[in-house]
Amino acid sequence: MAIGCSHGNRANRDALAAALLFREQYKPDEVIHLGDAYDLASLRAGALNNDGDSDAADDYLDDIDEGRRFLGALRPTVFLVGNHDERARRLLTHHNAVVRGFAEAVWQRMLEPIERHARVIIKTHDVLPRSWYKLGGFSWGHGILYSENFLRDTAETWGNTVVAHAHRAGMATGRRNDHPVCLSPGTLADAPCMDYALRRRGTLAWSHGIVFGEYTDDSAQLYVHQWPQNEKLWNLPSF
After folding, report:
1. Residue 239 placed within a domain
2. Is residue 117 over pLDDT 90?
3. Residue 62: in which H helix or E strand, if any?
4. φ and ψ at 118, to 5 degrees?
5. Quick one: CA dihedral 99, 46, 126, 164, positive or negative?
6. What is the value of pTM for the model shown?
7. Which pairing describes strands 78-80 and 2-3: parallel, antiparallel, or unpaired?
């Protein structure tokens, strides 16, 4: 089971409940959170450099508390840091000691529920192999690409993959003779809460979902279960 992009206090409550119900009913061997468990809007570069930015006043404590609460209930076995989570990690080397100390406290509070449950934590978010978790012949990661063809392009770049990041659940095949596929569970966030994206047409394509399936040491048969935005009937897959 893999989910991603729950974004702390910007999560869709029904999406979180559906993901947790899947976890409890099917008891998967692996529970992978693909990153962005927190949003950290106030630590966005634009907000840090501009006191007038609306994100500068974001309540990061509520964001962290909500993210921690969901992680505690989800009990992930694997966690991969996303670009939003990374906002705190990047400040760990800040030249200002006050900022650095703040970041250390925030980062440790973010990691605590993850370290309590996950046996694998990947704290890098880049294009290198170190940022992927290998399972069943697939590479599992937060994801870097976000264009309309992010699934196809990810498959063509890294092969069989599972990513989140772009918030659109789905599956695509790469244009290569080894036929790589990329799947995405989309996001568990609530689109109206994501102010930065509300003027982007692509936001209308966001959707919620879960990637699940069966795997062996070197192969996997994976599926995407998707709920569109504004869904009212949060049914689970049956198999």
Report:
1. no
2. yes
3. helix 60-74
4. -80, 135
5. positive
6. 0.93
7. unpaired
